[in-house]
Fold:
Amino acid sequence: MKRFVAGLATGAVLATPMGAAACGESKKPDPVTIDQAEVKDAQDYFDKVIDFWQSQLDVNESAPNLHIVNGNESYNCVDGARTTTIYSYTEQNVFCPGAGNTSKTAVAITAFALREELATNGGKSTRNFNIAHEGGHWVIEASSRQNPNNAVGTPKQEEWQADCYAGTAVATLDGQNSAVAVLAHLGALETNTDAQATYGTNEEQQAAFLQGSNGGPCDVTHVQKAVNKAPVH
Structure:
């Protein structure tokens, strides 16, 4: 099972749908389109996640915008001085922190990613986890701006924190059965050296998620302690 591209904007692509050009060709893959009911369902869940965190945490910032990149659409994800163009046919879920202006904070999710997530054994639980993970990145960024004592760790620790926040959101909004399905999904992910360098091992991701689904907290110190207890293979 593939690891969906998640977290901060990287411009990375793990997979493309059928129709992709062969090596050396310039033809772009065909756009991927999902129906508006799926778009609305994903948007509604994203709104639930953000509403939940705004009610739980002292985060006095505007909610991030969600951009579901569908069909012939594209979206320019801004991360500081870097802009990454996201297309519907790429397998990406990304947090776009903007260029210092919190009103420009956004999350971009592609139609291809949503379609692939729903096709996993975890189904909607997998999709909801990925949405909640990106919401977790917003919580981390917003909390660190609101309170300098809320330290932001290394990039990998931030991914674990986002997994932790996703665990809390999924367990609270969807119930423990959904959290169990997500744990199974994380355990079955196919990860390579590059993926592990960014997200950690399957067991570390599970430990971070479980820290959140058991109630947290999801600060760097507690998440690192939870990850340190993960089995090593």
Observations:
- Confidence is low (pLDDT under 50) at residues 1-22.
